[in-house]
TrEMBL record:
Protein name as catalogued: Large ribosomal subunit protein uL6
GO CC entries: ribosome
Gene it is expressed from: rplF
Pfam short name (any one): Ribosomal_L6
Residue span(s) of domain Large ribosomal subunit protein uL6 alpha-beta: 11-82, 90-164
HAMAP family listed in its UniProt record: Ribosomal_uL6_B
Family, similarity comment: Belongs to the universal ribosomal protein uL6 family.
Ribonucleoprotein found in the keyword field: yes
Function: This protein binds to the 23S rRNA, and is important in its secondary structure. It is located near the subunit interface in the base of the L7/L12 stalk, and near the tRNA binding site of the peptidyltransferase center.
Keywords: Ribonucleoprotein, Ribosomal protein, RNA-binding, rRNA-binding
Subunit structure: Part of the 50S ribosomal subunit.
Keyword Ribonucleoprotein belongs to the record: yes
């Protein structure tokens, strides 16, 4: 039995979980998320808890068991607390500014780079080198942060670029002097 999959998920106050066949909808104070569960896995709501079960011990059923439980738990956390991901802009002349709901980066290119937030995601800028990506969908927050980082990844010689908050960039030695 999957160690993660067999754990029941407690439903906090103010959150409703509805199961309709293979569709699971989670509604909370921050919004609503839905998930379609893969075929052999079954989801039930019992006594204020969500229970995820599998019918057999096939390899595919075992692999989907823990995954499904984690995805439902992520949705419940998302509609109650939300998710955030921090980014830092490091480098001389590199900076970020808020332009309405979008953000504008100056990253050493010949032009500023404007990034619009995807649906359900919001950007906040602190100072001129910190960005916070926030939303209720964990996957969407992580993808939006990864797409921003992709604009100018941290390079290994000086460490300049966009990095996650707390990310350690492995540095390389430059040219050896005479």
């Amino acid at each position: 039995m999957s160690r993660i999959g067999r754990l029941p998920i407690d439903i906090p106050a103010g959150v409703t979980v509805s199961v309709d066949g293979q569709d699971v909808a989670v509604k909370g104070p921050k919004g609503e998320l839905s998930l379609t569960v893969a075929r052999p896995i079954e989801v039930k709501v019992e006594e204020g808890q969500v229970v995820v079960t599998r019918p057999d011990d096939e390899r595919s059923s075992r692999s989907l068991h823990g995954l499904t439980r984690t995805l439902i738990n992520n949705n419940i956390i998302g509609v109650t607390q939300g998710y955030t991901k921090g980014l830092e802009v490091v480098g001389t002349g590199y900076r970020v500014a808020q332009k309405g709901s979008s953000i504008e980066f100056a990253l050493g290119f010949s032009h500023p780079v404007l990034v619009d937030p995807p649906a359900g995601i919001s950007f906040t800028v602190e100072g001129n080198n910190k960005v916070t990506v926030s939303g209720i969908d964990k996957q969407a927050v992580g993808e939006a942060a990864a797409n921003i980082r992709k604009i100018r990844k941290p390079e290994p010689y000086k460490g300049k670029g966009v990095r996650y908050a707390g990310e350690v960039v492995r540095r390389k030695a430059g040219k050896a002097g005479k």
